[in-house]
Amino acid sequence: MSQPHETPETTPYDVIVLGAGPVGQNVADRARAAGLSVAVVERELVGGECSYWACVPSKALLRPVIAVADAGRVDGARQAVTGRPDSDRVFARRNRYVTDWDDSGQARFVKSIGADLYRGHGRLDGRRRVTVTRDDGSRQTLSARHAVAVATGSRPALPDIPGIREARPWTNRHGTDSSTVPGRLAIVGGGGVGVEMATLWQGLGSQVTLLARHGLIPRMEPFAGELVAQGLVDAGAQVRTGVQVTALRRPDPGGPVTLTLDDGGELEADEVMFATGRTPSTDDIGLDTVGLTPGSWLDVDTTCLVQGVEGEWLYALGDVNHRALLTHQGKYQARTAGDAIGARAAGRPLDDAPWGDHATTADQHAVPQVFFTDPEAAAVGLTAAQAERAGHRVKIVDLAFNAAQGANLYADDYQGQARLVVDVDRDVLLGVTFVGPGVSELLHSATVAVAGQVPLKRLRHAIACFPTVSEIWLFLLAAYQLDRD
């Protein structure tokens, strides 16, 4: 007998996608391009975390802050800047880029590729089955002939410390959708979210205190965190490392919050934000019905096929597979997995060897990442320490950016550093790190060099235009050659 509000029939599709963020949209698009029918299920806004609470709003908010800082580094422009960014205009700019949290445009895109959009909470219901529960309690059962792709993303991980519920801390969502500048903001966590939010809110007028257990942005080269920390201090923020929050107090819901620290001290702020990691949004999607643990990260192979599930039908893309919690990397996985789903459905052989059409090889070797701080920090591939731990014989090349005249024209007294990590046995780059104003636009050239395994002998023939910041490539490669000779 059917349950109340339940639609008894099952609607078949070739592919079902759980999550309509950028990752889900990309795998749906690739599956449709392969001629497969696709259902996309979304329980919040179509466009996901990236579009409304992460990448898009944070960069829309940060750009005016960085633009003002950039102007302050150029004589002549500096004198024209007489104050901080206009916070009301900055928030209005953010609202435009997130379309006022209206997802109708992105919903139209999903439909434009020929996929069917289901709004509701999608849960696995055994092998190749998904049940969608709508807000009104009605349910629809879908079945997948070939694949179910999980692209449900992640959410903030809050520490279990006394007083955290009463303190009502900000997370990345509050940090990007708020339209009021707190007088004092404490940010807990020195990773990418923490340093970007510290840059943003300090630039808009908060007195920011950034608390980090270790150094800042620890997955990059150590000098990157050091330069970003100095940039925050120069902007007026306080940066305290080697400290943890052990308790919170907020007796008055409208009053300040007090942070108790493990060094015995206390810190009072008007708001506190936690940027202390992410947890997968897999706790209530029916993993137990296919033999997996609810709330777990999903282990996948090179085609993003989930391990431990029989039948080669369940895929996990983006944050949920924990390889790289970055939108662009998740979209890369989605494109690759979508092509693999199409090949498997058509009975074609997979090209899943390293760097093949159906292999997410870049997840291990060429993941690019930018932190839009001041200065910016951008890196791809392995750090020197990671390369050495992996057993590579490496040569490290470090240069200050002011070696390039283009950098000095970009900003008076340009401050920044670049590093190459070279595999001396193969004469190719294993990793590249840039820190400095505007370096995010240099990162793709580094990514091409690392992913393409371009020999340095050939790379020296890639001529950088004069006078640009990218001239740093010329000096880095020359320094490597001189040292090798």
Automatic annotation (TrEMBL):
Cofactor(s) needed for function: FAD
Binding site for NAD(+): G189, G190, G191, G192, V193, G194, V195, E196, G277
MF (Gene Ontology): dihydrolipoyl dehydrogenase (NADH) activity; flavin adenine dinucleotide binding
The record's free-text note on cofactor binding: Binds 1 FAD per subunit.
FAD/NAD(P)-binding domain span: 13-328
Domain Pyridine nucleotide-disulphide oxidoreductase dimerisation: 367-472
UniProt binding sites for FAD: K59, G122, T152, G153, S154, D319
One BP annotation, GO: 2-oxoglutarate metabolic process
InterPro entries (alphabetical): Class-I_Pyr_Nuc-Dis_Oxidored, FAD/NAD-bd_sf, FAD/NAD-binding_dom, FAD/NAD-linked_Rdtase_dimer_sf, Pyr_nuc-diS_OxRdtase, Pyr_nucl-diS_OxRdtase_dimer
Keyword Nucleotide-binding found: yes
Keywords: FAD, Flavoprotein, NAD, Nucleotide-binding
A Pfam family it matches: Pyr_redox_dim
Disulfide bridge map: C50-C55
Domain of life: Bacteria
Keyword field contains NAD: yes
Region (Disordered): 158-182
UniProt family annotation: Belongs to the class-I pyridine nucleotide-disulfide oxidoreductase family.
Name the record gives this protein: Pyridine nucleotide-disulfide oxidoreductase
Source organism of this protein record: Streptomyces colonosanans
